[in-house]
Amino acid sequence: MYKIIIVSILLLLPSCATQVTSIKSGENKVLEEGRGFILLGVETNRDLKQIKISGPTDIILSSKDIKEGSNYLIVDLTAGEYIIDQVRLDNYWRVDFDDEEYWNFTITEGKINYVGHLELTRRGKWSPWTRTELVNRSSEALEFLESSYATLLKNNPIIYEGPGEDRFYEFLNEMKGK
Predict the structure, then answer these.
(1) Which residue range is the domain that position 43 belongs to?
(2) What's the total number of domains in the chain?
(3) The whole model's pTM is what?
């Protein structure tokens, strides 16, 4: 009897995350109090099944938004500390991230939080080997926002929340104020 209950609980745990999709280009979403936007770039040589991010709100970015090539994802989230936990490559293979310092980020209320560009290269369709890195492409992300989400960018300041430090957005926000 107890085995059935434990198995049932274990099967329900992964479903606690909410599956979300990126805000559509040109959409002017207004943030509710206590929320901010995540801007995540994804560069991959194969379609991905999902990206799991844990924090105050656990989310799963769906395969609809992470196709082969270069993608940007913008989602509004509850402000707080998050971590990119896992990328499911397909139904069989996944990449788990253990280095919390490198894969964690903060969502700041009322801002667009650029967390970096997830570069994922897979050797072959049936190969588990992948090269995965989170890199800073701040200027490319800004160009993307200016061309596809100009109103969102106009109404919300952008900051860098990825690994390492970058004052590029801070400098741009100061220049806007002058």
Answers:
(1) 18-177
(2) 1
(3) 0.86
For residue range 90-146, list pLDDT tens digits in order.
888 889 987 778 899 999 999 999 999 999 998 877 777 889 999 999 999 999 999
Task: Give residues with Cβ within 8 angstroms of 52, minimum separation 6.
Answer: 17, 58, 59, 60, 61, 84, 85, 86, 87, 88
Identify whether 4 is part of a domain: no
For residue range 34-78, list pLDDT tens digits in order: 999 999 999 999 999 999 999 999 999 988 888 888 899 999 999
In a domain, 7, yes or no: no
Q: Is position 143 within any domain? A: yes
Q: Which residues lie below 8 Å from residue 42, measured CB to CB, with a gap of 6+?
A: 48, 51, 66, 70, 71, 72, 73, 117, 118, 120
